[in-house]
Design brief:
Blueprint lengths: L6 E3 L2 E3 L6 E5 L7 E6 L3 H18 L4 H17 L1 H12 L3 H18 L10 E2 L6 E9 L2 E5 L5 H14 L3 E5 L5 H13 L7 E3 L4 H10 L3 E7 L2 H13 L3 E5 L4 E5 L5 H12 L10 E7 H17 L18 H17 L2 E4 L18 E4 L6 H4 L6 E7 L2 H9 L3 E2 L2 E4 L3 H10 L6 E2 L15 E2 L2 E2 L13 E9 L1
Parallel strand pairs: 7-8, 7-10, 8-9, 10-11, 12-13, 12-18, 13-16, 15-16, 18-19
Antiparallel strand pairs: 1-2, 3-4, 5-6, 6-22, 11-21, 14-15, 17-20
């Protein structure tokens, strides 16, 4: 019998007021329902916010290092449950088991790095013009905050957002992605076992539009951290900031990688496969535009097609699988729609471009790694994020044109250049319009101790992670003191 799971409010697992539920489905086998979850609405969000508001009065008064103790306990729990967590991620997201283990490990590394931030919630002492005045600043929590997480890294991003929010002294209303609700149940259980008091973290599951709107519009929500599409993020940002709240959003990307003539093609193609195809292209920092000089384009395309065709697509628990299924039917249909549009626009389909149905794959949402050539800047495939293993190759005549093409995007999340020319590499780093960039490294490479975020329509608000992780979750108070 398939289990039914509940919202988590005030330290209790409770049913949604509507009494309705929705399923989470295994994308490798659409007939396999992983569980039923609460289809909540505005009323459930209101209750969670009221609970969080009461908890804030107590939690915010606890010493910051004591709040930080939660993260040390969380690290041990993540280590102990690594295999179980990875198994759930593979079942619910579809990514390979080895990639799911990688997500858990990255989450552990993030908590190791961030656990020390509890002792670095620092202010400043600044000399006053008056010798009898002592002036300084302190950082204080905001209040009740909203966290809205995506499906592609449901464990990592959910915890990366919640952890700094509560260490800073805030209380949280958490909205996970509907198609990764099961791993989100585990997130709550982990924080509960780590010692988070009741009411500090509350989770409400349900439709993104309904719950997201309820969180974004509520006057008691002081800040919202969101990861997802640019369209939703910008709309949510307007709702939050129009009423005076703080907004942080990590959104879409159409990330470019430039290959120059002097690049090591063996290593470069391997890196492009990692950043463009693995995890089914469902990484916001993955490469989706590959910009190459005409002089080497045929060789690059041939090598990339060979590498794409060599990938094994199957159930994520298959040890030989390089990719599992895409997340759901909607994403499958979006992928097929983009493929058809690209062909109609005149792009050349070099490989892939189809749903895979042989050997039992028809039960899930499996697709072939896809390469298009003859792509120009007017095509939809050049402009729009697909969130699938699709690489569009654009040919150019010079480095200068390559840089111009790379910057011709509404997005500005991540980028890469492959070259041995140090001068061009440094010029690229200085002039590329992205928040994260790389030289001879896959565009999706990151480490948790560095700030993360994009430019243009890829991000709103302060950066996540690294030394800036607490910036968004606090506000400064300036103090002037005279005896």
């Amino acid at each position: 019998m398939t289990e039914t799971y509940f919202n988590y409010i005030d330290g209790e697992w409770v049913q949604a007021i509507s009494g309705e539920v929705y399923p989470s489905i295994n994308p490798a086998n659409a007939d396999h329902i992983l569980g039923y979850f609460q289809k909540s609405d505005q009323k459930d969000v209101d209750i969670a916010i009221d609970v969080a508001e009461k908890a804030f009065k107590i939690w915010s008064k606890i010493a910051v290092p004591e709040r930080g103790e939660v993260l040390f306990k969380l690290i041990n729990l993540l280590e102990e449950q690594k295999e179980e967590l990875a198994t759930i991620i593979t079942k619910e997201v579809g990514k390979t088991y080895k990639n799911s283990l990688g997500e858990v490990q990255k989450t552990i590394e993030a908590m190791k790095q961030f656990s020390g931030e509890a002792t670095r919630l620092t202010g400043e002492t600044i000399p006053s013009n008056d010798p009898d005045i002592f002036g300084y600043t302190v950082r204080e929590p905001l209040g009740v905050v909203g966290v809205i997480a995506p499906y592609n890294f449901p464990l990592g991003i959910g915890i990366w957002k919640i952890a700094p929010a509560i260490v800073a002294g805030n209380t949280v209303v958490f909205k996970p992605a509907s198609n990764t609700s099961l791993i989100s149940i585990k997130i709550i259980e982990l924080f509960e076992k780590a010692g988070v008091p009741r009411g500090v973290i509350n989770m409400v599951t349900g439709p993104g539009g309904v719950i997201g709107r309820a969180i974004g519009n509520h006057a008691k929500i002081k800040a919202v951290s969101f990861t997802g599409s640019t369209e939703v993020g910008l709309a949510l940002g307007r709702a939050v900031t129009n009423r005076g709240g703080k907004m942080q959003a990590e959104m879409g990307g159409k990330n470019a990688s430039i290959i120059l003539e002097d690049a090591d093609l063996d290593e470069t193609i391997q890196n492009v496969v990692i950043s463009g195809f693995f995890d089914n292209g469902q990484r916001c920092t993955g490469t989706s535009r590959l910009i190459v000089p005409r002089s080497i384009s045929k060789e690059v395309i041939a090598r990339l097609v060979e590498a794409a065709n060599a990938l094994t697509i199957g159930d994520g628990f298959d040890e030989n699988a390089d990719n599992g299924p895409i997340i759901d039917e909607n994403q499958l249909n979006l992928y097929l729609e983009h493929v058809n549009d690209a062909i109609q626009d005149g792009a050349v389909l070099e490989c892939g471009g189809k749903r895979l149905t042989d050997n039992g794959l028809d039960r899930g949402y499996f697709i072939a790694p896809t390469v298009f050539s003859n792509v120009n800047r007017e095509m939809r495939i050049f402009k729009e994020e697909i969130f699938a293993p699709v690489i569009a190759v654009i040919e150019v005549d010079s480095y200068e044109e390559a840089l111009e093409v790379a910057n011709d995007s509404e997005f500005g999340l991540s980028s890469t250049i492959y070259t041995k020319d140090l001068a061009k590499a440094m010029h690229f780093v200085k002039h590329i319009e992205t928040g994260v960039t790389h030289v001879n490294i896959p565009s999706n490479y990151f480490e948790n101790q560095y700030p993360f975020g994009g430019k243009k329509a890829s991000s709103l608000g302060p950066r996540e992670q690294g030394s800036t992780a607490l910036e968004f979750w606090t506000e400064y108070k300036t103090v002037y003191m005279k005896a």
